[in-house]
Here is the input.
Amino acid sequence: MEIFNEIAPLKAFLKAKKQALNSIGLVPTMGALHSGHISLIEASKAENDLTVCSIFVNPAQFNNPNDLQRYPRTLDKDTLLLKKVECDAIFCPDSTEMYRHQPLIKFDFGHLDKIMEGKFRPGHFSGVALVVSKLFNIVEPHHAYFGQKDWQQYSIIRQLVDDLNFNLILHSVPTSREPDGLAMSSRNLRLNESQRQKAIVFFEALTFAKRALNDGAPLVQVQQKVMQLVEKDAEIKLEYFELADSKNLNLLENVKGASQPIMCIAGFVGEIRLIDNMFL
Here is the structure.
């Protein structure tokens, strides 16, 4: 496994390999890797001759400086894990390598980044689009892999690829969950034992809502019940629960009118923000 901290050596390595390869897969991450990330690596390895995993805590996508400072960083552990699953290359630059100058470019994705995560984290998706564009240009992958847990992010990157004609295929890999249903997330590392037990309420709320909506319950009624379920513990705060069309992220008032509706939820356990989703 090759490890690169700088762009130029990585590009030279990939250029030398490309003549003998049919395809390169890219798995962009911010590190603190877990089984969900490994499922992305495995999906890439199954479909490509070479897999690159990037590890970069991207400051451009954090609208909360404290969140950026406290985001888990476990590079040594991540490296050992990627070596174990036989990832071919790691790209782990620092901020000065990725942003040699303060970037001025901003992305606007219309309604896609004004709702849900975009509403509560202004500027977040512009930062995501910027770093993903950089990674696509650096690695020039044939395939790129993202987790379903961040469905709004995936939808925005899908729009980015389409609008800017990136020559690659995007893949969304199903969310990996703990045995009790909690969606795997790097932020879970920040939960204490009590908070970890409480955090499953978001999965429980989605499970309830799926059953209720499929049984014909009005969305407003389901949203009210979800809030009651989530906020029965004073340490937990619901930020949003929405029903959207997974193809275009248009918010829905009921399950009709969309071929594949998705429920999206976000909230806080203490000061730790978690998100999850579930297709109907």
About this structure: The mean pLDDT is 96. Residues 124-139 form the longest helix (16 residues).
